[in-house]
Amino acid sequence: MKNIWKIFTRRPSRMVGVVLLLFFIVLAIFGPIMYPHPAVPNPNQIYAPPSWAHFLGTDYAGRDIWEQIVQGAQNVLYVAFLGALFTIIIGTVVGLAAGYLGPVVDNILMRITDMFLTIPSIALTIILAVTIGLSNNIVMAGILSFASWGGLARAIRSMVLSIKSRSFIEVSLGLGIPRWRVLFRDVLPNLMPYIVVHLMLALTSTVYGEVGLFFLGVVPFNAANWGVMLNYATGGSGAMYSTQSLMFLISPILAIVLLQTGIVLTSDAVNAIVDPRLREAK
Amino acid sequence: MNKLIRRVVTSLILIFVVATLTFFLIRLMPGSPYEVLYHQLLMKGMSQQQAADQVRSLLNATPNEPVILQYFQWVVQLFHGSLGNSIAQTGVPVTQLIFNALPWTLVTVTMGLFISFFIGIFLGVISASKRNSWVSGLIDNASSIAHAIPAYVTAVALLYLFNVVWHVFPSSGAYGITVYPGVNLPFILSFMYHMVLPVGTYVLTGLGSWELAMKATTITVTNDDFMMAARLRGLRHSTLMSYLGWNSILPLFTGFMLSLGAMFGGSVFIESTYSFPGIGNLFGAAITSRDYPVMEGCFLLTTTTIIVANVVADLMYSKLDPRIVD
Predict the structure, then answer these.
(1) Among A146, B212, B233, B323, fewest CB within 10 Å belongs to which?
(2) Cross-strand bridge partners of residue B255
């Protein structure tokens, strides 16, 4: 516990990151309780400046911007976490299978992984989103993870190969401990630090992809999302070209930037916590 | 030489597999644009034969044939260098649209890649040499955050700052209306002026990964035995730095070619925001109008670019780094 505290005090930016990420998680959890209904348009208050009633002002239809940001947080974070989780699961399973099940499986799985690594992931995600159609959040998370597990699978595979040749694994196998038991008791725990750090990285890329799909307008606009706000701000509402509506443009931008900053700085902290070699160095 | 042939053949197969997968993905989905048009024509009172002929002449597809036959026709077409016709701009060949858009993207992406590479390397070396001070932490965090911020957010922010708040750079297009495209000075100047914001976005979103990679390799190389030996031999500082520089940059080279593909993907967001007439914009427009042949073509082109870049990177890498024996 003391060590963890030291990691945070050594670089205050890590603390900032955790606070930012926690802030958005709190918004995502309590947002639907605070604002259970969609924001109400008010034609008398179009592009109102920030005030006590409207924390961040109002948008082109007189809706409260803060309310929309809060409602968007839930959707963004939920899909991002789910997508990152899927990415980690697919990547880990493929990597473990390729590294652990022998050269034939390895060859087949690595050819497939290579293919996914060469296909541009953003383009593939968009094509899948358009052709499959996004009916709900789970499908969306699945599509986001489908194109982005390649790097992790590759890294896990090479780590499994190097761990497999270490003596403690040979001893375990030599003692007659079943292969599956060795895999889950000895190999996987050694990979855990890397997987946890990669979860944070996957989170930034799923946020990127998810908000991007909404921003491009690929997805039907039925959810409250920061991408939808940014799309309206830059496109239809003309908020981009008027100085009056600055808050409507800047709010989704700030939300995305702060969320990504929080994730990146937290991942720095997580990295320092799970990797003992980094604990001594700065 | 043998290796070269094998690489080229496997790449061609890979390109073909990707093309086939996109073909089936798009054809087998319910409500494909061919069927939609076919049924629209049927509802207008055409006979089945007439409607099928109409779809065939407009979109170069035959909806009432089995998919496998359509696939063979498509393969034959592909080998003749045709990707079919656009749906949104009815009758225009996809290849023509792509070749009109490609040069713009190619130039901006290459510029962005080079600039972000050099800035990233510079920052990486600084961060590695000041490893134990706050400077390193600042550079690392700033680069990873710049990398994590989505390209469309950076693009919108830059556009707002430099076009709306300060009227410095143009908001759309690749060149002004007063110049004529060609090899002449006014056009080149106008093009470069319009290029500043898109290239700036590529640089801002791209340099982070270079910075982190360069820092990692520089630290590894500094601790290498040969660097220690060079230091013990009392070589001049500039010689040491050139050893260090070259050996740290080498491992980044494969990533350099690979990121070309990632930037092509990112161009969807960047070019849509700046209305820049490149591949990304074409792809973005094709998505919003559900123009499947154009989508297929752009996707195929992007994938092919990456695969070719990969092969080139591999071959050049074994030439650049004599330690790699093929």
Answers:
(1) B323
(2) none
Query: Which of these ranges, A74-88, A149-163, B53-67, B230-244, has the smallest mean pLDDT?
Result: B53-67
In this predicted model, what pLDDT tens digit does every residue of A240-263 receive, in sequence order? 777 677 778 888 888 999 999 999
Q: Say if B264 is an interface residue toward chain A (CB within 8 Å).
A: yes
Of B137, B165, B283, the CB nearest to A123: B283
With respect to residue A18, please indicate whether it lies within any of the assigned structural domains. no
Nearest residue, CB atoms, B310 vs list A118, A130, A211: A118
Ordered domains of chain B (ranges, CATH): 31-82 (no CATH), 95-320 (1.10.3720.10)
Confirm whether A69 is domain-assigned: no
Number of domains in chain A: 1
- Report the CATH number that the domain containing residue A209 is assigned in CATH: 1.10.3720.10
> Strand, helix or coil at B183?
coil
- In-domain check, residue A220: yes
- State how far the Cα of B246 lies from the Cα of B238, in Å rounded to an integer: 12
Confidence (pLDDT) at A282: 42
Please enumerate in sequence order all residues whose Cβ is within 8 A of that of A115, keeping only pairs 6 or more positions apart, or say none.
B14, B17, B18
Return the closest-CA partner of residue B213 out of B121, B148, B309.
B121
**CA–CA separation, B211 vs B204, rounded Å?**
12
pLDDT at A93: 92
CA distance A94 to A154: 9
